[in-house]
Amino acid sequence: MKRAMRPAENGKLLFKQVYDYVISRIERQEWKAHHKLPSIRLLAQELRVHRLTVYRAYQMLKQNGKVYVKEKSGYYVCPSDPEQTLPEYGEHSENRPIAASGFLKNDLSEIHQVPVIYQFSQALIDPNLLPNLFLSEYVKKVFDSYPKLLGTYSTVQGDEELRDVLTRYMVRQLRVQLTASEMLITTGGQQAIDLLSRIFIRPMDAILVERPTYSAALDIFRQQGARLLPVDIYPDGYDLENLELLMKQYKPRLFYMNPTFHNPTGYTVPSAQRKQLVELAERYRCLIIEDDAFHDMYFDKPPPMPLFAYDTEGWVVYLRSFSKYIAPGLRICSVIGRRFVIEPLITAKSLADNGTPCVNQKIFLHYFGSERLQQHLEKLRIALQVRRDIMEQELTAAGWSWVTPQGGLNLWLKLPDSISLEKFFVESIRQSVSFVPGVICDPLREMHSWIRLSYSFVNEALLREGTRRLVDIAKRYK
Ligand SMILES: Cc1ncc(COP(=O)(O)O)c(C=O)c1O
């Protein structure tokens, strides 16, 4: 396969991030109509960027009608266009509750809600590939073993029996020292990202995110008011020199990464970089959130050891969600970290929901410990590899470029610049094919000619038909 092109260089459009930052404060109504923006000097100091960068952002805000200038005084927020912006959240909607955040957004979830036949936007496993019958038999057994199951709350940190089993599993697999007290069970990986961001991010904090990355994580970080510093991910990992410069200059609080069968690209950060990444995190006191949602979804050989296995000082918090390939309906994720991460997380979890439902945890526990799980995983890996191959075969006629993933659920494709992605997307949806436009996975929102196609959700026949249809549609937009 052809190699994917490298995305734009880091920091190229820093002023655009400052622009987005100001817009987000306006949208969150922290800065209201006629509010005076901080002076250029002050904002440059706060965000640790050059004054010219802030000047360019302010100019662009002015051009786009977001702010106005008062001679010798400064920049002020324009009153919002009532037809354009969230009228139901506005100050003048007297008979409605006022949401404190008008900025809640989940781009990915909006795409998934469109009903289509050729579903290539959901990075989920085809339910027909999961052991549904087997699981439903199990449910009965679990209720027989714990007759009072529905009458009890789980502990906030997670079912003790489950944490014991998962701890032993992680100790064996990652060869680390670990106790069950260093693990928290969350309702999916998504909740873990959300809770971590509530604890570790304050508005305006700089954080590192891969470019591109899991778009729902970006939405969570934006909602928290974070300033996103992109770290390009390539088929052979990150540019560590550049990463170190970012850490030195911005002192980011955390780096959210998905280094194994990365979503959306499918790339895996090589083991040679993993130890160095942990050293950088220690040196610059930057917490690494290692999201390992696809660890067991490999094709030919298992992935390298997680970064967590190299961590001795507690700078890595490890998220292993089992939603994707064991039972999405149960939404079990284990979060592992040292005491100073897990303790505040338990408090955040107690505020969010007081614990993941007991029933889900017990059903998962019994399935996880069964031989059947191993057999299921082996079959699943083969089925997914076959689907990946089918999609790749059908795409060869398109002339797009991508790197064949060695695991995970997605293909990340570069389309010719001549294709207008917006029109292509609308027409594809109209013809019942969905995909994820790359731009929503990009913290800079610029990757207009990239798309993510998931090969895991629909059966082989639909996969062939849908991919052919997509290639045909694209031909018309050249
Ligand atoms: C990288 C990544 N992290 C987390 C999640 C969310 O996982 P869960 O379904 O366990 O909440 C996803 C789902 O697509 C994902 O791709």
Description:
The chain is an alpha/beta fold and 478 residues long. It has 3 domains: 7-94, Winged helix-like DNA-binding domain superfamily/Winged helix DNA-binding domain (Arc Repressor Mutant, subunit A); 107-129 and 373-475, Alpha-Beta Complex (Aspartate Aminotransferase, domain 1), CATH 3.90.1150.10; 132-371, 3-Layer(aba) Sandwich (Aspartate Aminotransferase, domain 2), CATH 3.40.640. The protein is 40% helix and 13% strand. It contains 15 helices and 14 strands. It has helices at residues 14-27, 40-47, 51-63, 107-112, 132-145, 160-174, 188-200, 215-223, 240-250, 271-284, 339-352, 358-368, 371-395, 421-430, 460-475; strands at residues 67-70, 74-77, 118-119, 183-187, 206-211, 227-232, 254-257, 287-291, 316-321, 332-336, 410-414, 433-434, 436-437, 450-454. The strands form 4 sheets. The protein has a 7-stranded mixed sheet with strand order 4-10-9-8-7-5-6, sandwiched between helices. A 3-stranded antiparallel sheet has the order 11-14-13, with no helix packed on it. Strand 7, helix 10 and strand 8 (287-291) form a beta-alpha-beta unit. Helix 2 (40-47) packs across helix 3 (51-63) and helix 7 (188-200) packs across helix 11. The longest helix has 25 residues, at 371-395. Bound molecules: pyridoxal-5'-phosphate. Pyridoxal-5'-phosphate (PLP) binds next to helix 7.
